[in-house]
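User: Just a sanity check before I run the rest of the batch. Below are the structure tokens for the first item. I only need the designed sequence back.
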């Protein structure tokens, strides 16, 4: 049976959140490899995705090779095809009607939606009314800043609109909007003023209000100064547009749309060229940018993986600098790490984000070692994370099939998009080609996964990728040295001391290193802790076909996310076989996949896929009346026996169950059946 029919009800979900479910939104994926300290994108063409692609080759000045840049890469459904056509025309217009090099102002016809047009027209009317009231004063200039401009130029919709003002405070300008609308007989509702608060990195007041049901932030153009010990500026003043542009994290995020003049402004003179060429670059030297705010490193990795853009040498070299890494450790709160990480995992290519984090030496910083603890088992390494994430991605790409999707495309392209970053790329080419041929072999086996696996929600996918990041901690326990020293003083606390010595590191890392929620941390820990048990059960099923009761009790133990646990365990078993295997050894991964196919098929053949929801056919009152007993601890054992009977007798009825329970010997006081 074809795998594309595995998830009969996944289509609605995939349409709603396809960018999350598939390895990348891009039809042509990017192969990241390090040549002469450059991360380059090598395009893998797919005939099936050839329509509407715009590709240009751009010479990299710092090296001797040509890298292929993708100017338009969106999923080829009707809506996105229109988006690609628009983007092509837009980029063509930029190159045709504007001088790209050393240019600040661009005449570009941005495609506004209806609400955006209304907002801009209203703001122009307010500017005009201010000019009429005080004709001697220079007009207020308004600019849309930040990611909105970048996204609109790339053909994406963006609901996050920030407007920068040059000569007026945000709240003051909002009041002017309110006055203007009042004259028109319209109520602005309310203006939310955010006062300056240096302790929380709010040095200049901002104002937020709703225009046409959209929340708009009004900010001021600003200039910032930093000290060595904090990413929070110690001084923020009103700035010029150029100063504001240069303080931003990337040139592609430093583009402004001038509402007054209807122009795109690129004060760094690199934003538009970098957007066209697909480059991530900092406006100022990268070392200076990261020294002031090291969190920008993580943000730029997120943008690189989201858009599949090239990261320039200056950034790569600065990330390697020990001083920058130390600043990243000391200046950034764990909460901010977690927030950026979550955005990456929810993004279009979580595997590429994960690989960039690992290959750029940031894994140990983000998932920091446990302080004041001694590890008592060997810690894995970040290469395990990369291998696990790749295999997980291929499994998910295969499971979440569609009639229009080439499953081989996902596996092969995912391999391209997240290939390892290595200084010796020439040495890697042969091994990568070897791996590609083996991937197809694995894919043929994955195509036979049992065709009734339940759909995975976007939250499930997110948790699975978060789990891949914690795989190195699977076999890591730690000792609480302080607690050990305290409890060693008293022999009475020996039992408690032993309990505090050996603890799982997963829970600590999820909650302390990246500040995941308790629910997320518990789920990740549970998925990893289930691996060994599932491997054992899958192995047992090969030796002796498990009976319905044993299989059902196991699924109930795993709970509603049992399929996620099986997916994680399958990826874990395949992980050591992936990069190390030779062609003649592929029988082993093939055998692993076959075992899991059999296990999943057994679950469905027995009708146990939803047995975790099954309630006892007899309730407590019925048992008390039937056996003439009092409520107590034995009730739990009796109801457990009811569930076991139901699993053994899926077609049984209540009367048959009553007869079975009545004939059972009552549990003893220790809870065991006599």
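Assistant: Here's the designed sequence for the first item:
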């Amino acid at each position: 049976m074809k795998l594309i029919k595995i998830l009969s009800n996944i289509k609605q979900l995939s349409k709603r959140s396809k960018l999350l479910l598939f390895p990348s939104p891009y039809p042509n994926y990017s192969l990241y490899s390090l040549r002469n300290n450059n991360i380059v994108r090598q395009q893998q063409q797919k005939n099936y995705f050839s329509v509407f692609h715009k590709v240009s080759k751009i010479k990299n000045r710092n090296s001797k090779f040509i890298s292929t840049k993708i100017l338009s890469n969106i999923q080829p459904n009707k809506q996105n095809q229109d988006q690609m056509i628009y983007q092509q025309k837009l980029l063509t217009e930029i190159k045709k009607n504007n001088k790209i090099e050393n240019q600040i102002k661009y005449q570009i016809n941005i495609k506004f939606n209806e609400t955006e047009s209304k907002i801009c027209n209203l703001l122009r009317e307010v500017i005009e009314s201010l000019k009429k009231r005080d004709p001697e004063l220079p007009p207020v200039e308004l600019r849309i800043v930040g990611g909105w401009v970048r996204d609109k130029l790339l053909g994406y919709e963006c609901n996050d609109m920030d407007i920068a003002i040059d000569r007026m405070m945000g709240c003051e300008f909002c009041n002017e909007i309110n006055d203007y609308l009042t004259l028109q007989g319209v109520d602005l509702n309310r203006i939310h003023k955010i006062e300056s608060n240096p302790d929380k990195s709010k040095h200049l007041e901002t104002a937020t209000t709703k225009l046409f049901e959209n929340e708009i932030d009004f900010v001021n153009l600003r200039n910032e100064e930093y000290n060595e010990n904090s990413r929070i500026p110690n001084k923020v003043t009103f700035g010029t547009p150029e100063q504001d542009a240069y303080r931003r994290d990337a040139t592609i995020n430093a583009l402004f749309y001038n509402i007054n003049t209807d122009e795109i402004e690129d004060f760094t003179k690199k934003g538009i060229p970098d957007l066209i060429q697909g480059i991530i670059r900092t406006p100022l030297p990268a070392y200076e940018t990261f020294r002031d705010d090291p969190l920008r490193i993580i943000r730029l990795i997120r943008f690189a993986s989201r858009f599949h853009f090239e990261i320039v040498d200056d950034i790569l070299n600065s990330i390697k600098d020990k001083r920058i890494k130390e600043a990243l450790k000391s200046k950034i709160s764990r909460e901010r790490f977690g927030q950026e990480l979550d955005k990456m995992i929810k993004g279009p290519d979580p595997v590429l984000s994960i690989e960039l984090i690992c290959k750029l030496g940031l894994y140990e910083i983000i998932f920091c070692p446990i302080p004041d603890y001694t590890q008592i088992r060997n810690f894995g390494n970040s290469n395990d994370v990369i291998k696990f994430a790749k295999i997980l991605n291929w499994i998910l790409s295969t499971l979440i099939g569609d009639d229009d999707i080439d499953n081989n495309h996902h596996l092969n392209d995912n391999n391209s998009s997240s290939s390892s970053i290595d200084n010796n790329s020439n040495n890697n080419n042969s091994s990568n080609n070897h791996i590609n041929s083996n991937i197809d072999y694995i894919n043929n086996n994955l195509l036979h996964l049992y065709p009734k696996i339940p759909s995975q929600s976007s939250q499930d996918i997110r948790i699975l990728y978060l789990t891949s990041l914690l795989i190195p901690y699977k076999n890591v326990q730690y000792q609480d040295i302080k607690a050990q020293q305290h409890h060693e003083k008293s022999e009475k606390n020996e039992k408690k001391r032993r309990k505090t010595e050996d603890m799982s590191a997963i829970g600590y890392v999820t909650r302390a290193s990246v500040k995941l929620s308790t629910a997320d941390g518990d789920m990740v820990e549970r998925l990893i802790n289930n691996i060994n048990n599932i491997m054992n059960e899958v192995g047992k099923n090969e030796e002796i076909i498990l009976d319905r009761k044993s299989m059902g009790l196991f699924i109930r133990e795993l709970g509603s996310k049992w399929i996620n646990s099986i997916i994680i365990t399958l990826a874990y078993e395949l992980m050591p076989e992936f990069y190390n295997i030779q062609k003649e050894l592929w029988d082993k991964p093939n055998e692993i996949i076959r075992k899991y196919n059999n296990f999943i098929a057994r679950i469905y053949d027995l009708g146990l896929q939803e047995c975790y929801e099954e309630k006892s056919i007899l309730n407590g009152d019925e048992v008390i009346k039937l056996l003439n007993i009092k409520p107590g601890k034995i009730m739990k054992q009796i109801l457990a026996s009811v569930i076991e009977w139901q699993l053994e007798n899926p077609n049984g009825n209540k009367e048959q169950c009553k007869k079975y329970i009545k004939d059972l010997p009552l549990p003893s006081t220790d809870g065991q059946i006599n």
